[in-house]
Design goal:
about 35% helix; three-stranded parallel β-sheet; single chain; about 300 residues; six-stranded mixed β-sheet
Length: about 300
């Protein structure tokens, strides 16, 4: 599930490498979200599920893993990366990186991987920031900061954003492309999800559900639930918001966690085999019965709260 930060960061790095006269390739595992299809260069991104460029990865001179630090996240794409003898660099802002690379540019205090890419390129005094790279990094940072609402939105980050706008990134157009291009089915599904919401633990937990029946009723797909969980924290008194989605075709249940203040959503996600950030995390659970897992999540959330 590559998101705006992953795709924006990877594409920005791609254009930087091309500018240096080198050849580059971007591979992801999973579909490109519909609201990211407008990104410049998105057609260059290879979905490894559909085009497994195994030998190309195996024979690369350098491999950069961006916006993740655990190869299990990219499933079968991890195999050629592990087997390649090329040096490997991780550029990421998640905590507890796994030991598989040669160089780690990891800073959990950064707002996004896009911020780290900007700082990396800024060290190159011979490089001039293009409009294309500015747009890509703006989207990367905007999406991973919740449109500049999350805790790591600092004055310095706004100065970085100012430099991207000065280089040609249009904040109005980019926001509109990311957040205001939902298919009608997505809004119908959101209505179903809103109707499912319940409060628990003295109103501190808001639980939102998306079931297989809701997907079928609205003719929706998994990508349509992106950003749904953010709505749970807009309710007065809620400290922890959880979205539990039933992906029946893969016998999978996808759980998204969001929190406020001193509530550690990542520790809750870890109980279900997931991870992420302190205030934003997720997990995927396989082979469990949906209602049973919902009850388990509510109970575990109570202990955190």
């Amino acid at each position: 599930n590559p998101d705006g930060d992953a795709l924006g960061s990877a594409l920005a790095l791609y254009y930087y490498i091309i500018d240096k006269g080198k050849k580059a390739r971007i591979c992801v595992y999973g579909e490109i979200p519909y609201n990211m299809e407008f990104l410049p260069g998105i057609e260059k991104v290879v979905n490894y599920e559909k085009e497994p460029v195994y030998d190309e990865i195996l024979n690369s001179d350098l491999i950069v893993v961006a916006d993740l630090n655990d190869l299990s996240r990219i499933r079968s794409l991890a195999d050629p990366i592990k087997k390649s003898k090329a040096p490997k660099i991780v550029i990421d802002h998640h905590i507890e990186p796994k030991d598989f690379a040669d160089i780690y540019l990891v800073n959990p205090d950064a707002s996004s991987t896009g911020e780290l890419i900007w700082k990396l390129l800024d060290y190159d005094t011979e490089f001039n920031l293009s409009k294309t790279i500015a747009e890509l990094l703006y989207v990367a940072i905007m999406t991973d900061t919740g449109s500049f609402r999350f805790p790591r939105t600092t004055g310095n980050l706004h100065r970085i954003i100012a430099s991207l706008i000065d280089a040609g990134a249009d904040p109005v157009l980019l926001y509109d492309n990311v957040y205001n291009t939902n298919p009608f089915r997505t809004m119908k599904l959101l209505g179903e999800a809103f109707a499912s919401m319940e409060l628990f633990h003295d109103g501190k937990l808001c639980l939102m559900r998306v079931t297989d029946e809701m997907f079928k009723k609205t003719c929706s797909v998994e990508d349509d639930i992106e950003n749904f969980v953010e709505k749970t924290l807009s309710i007065r008194g809620v400290k922890l918001g959880i979205l539990i989605s039933e992906i029946k075709q893969r016998n999978e249940i996808r759980i998204s966690f969001r929190s406020k203040g001193d509530i550690d959503s990542r520790s809750l996600a870890a109980r279900f085999g997931g991870g992420g950030h302190f205030h934003a995390s997720g997990a995927r659970v396989y082979g469990r019965e949906y209602s049973e897992l919902v009850n388990n999540v509510i109970e575990s959330a109570g202990k955190i709260l």
